[in-house]
Amino acid sequence: MKNKVSKISLLFILFLMFLAFVSHKLLTHFTSDNNSGTFHLIITLAIIMISGIIFNYTISKNNQRNNKIFDKLKRNNDEIRESNERYDIVAKATSDTIWDWKIQEDHFIWNKGIQGIFGYKKEDVGNTSKWWFDRIHPEDSIKMSIKLYSFIEQKTERWHDEYRFKCADGSYKYVFDRGFLVKDENGTAIRMIGAIQDITKQKEEEQRLKLLETVITQTKDSVIITESEKANKGIPKIVFVNPAFTEMTGYQSGEVVGKSPTVFMGRQSVKNDMQRLSQALRKKEEFKFETINHKKNGDEYWISFSMIPITNSEGEHSHWISMQRDITEEKHREKEREQLIRELTQNNKDLKQFSYITSHNLRAPLSNLTGLLNLMQDIPVENLELKEILNGFSTSTHLLNETINDLVKVVIIKDNPSIQKEEVLIKDVFENVFNQLSFLISLHKPILKIELEKVTILNINKAYLESILLNLFTNAIKYRSPKRTLRIFVSSKEVDDEITLIFKDNGIGIDMERNRDKIFGLYQRFHNYPDSKGLGLYLVKSQVETMGGSIQVESEVDKGTTFTLTFKK
Amino acid sequence: MLDLILCVDDDPITLMLCKMVIAKSSFAQEVVTAQHGEEALAYFDDLKLNNLGNDIARYPKLIFLDLNMPVMGGWEFLDEFAKPEYADVFKETRVIVLSSTIDPRDINKSKTYPMVIDFMSKPITKEMLEDLKKIF
Question: What stretches pass through the bilayer (chain B) (predicted)?
Answer without folding.
Answer: none
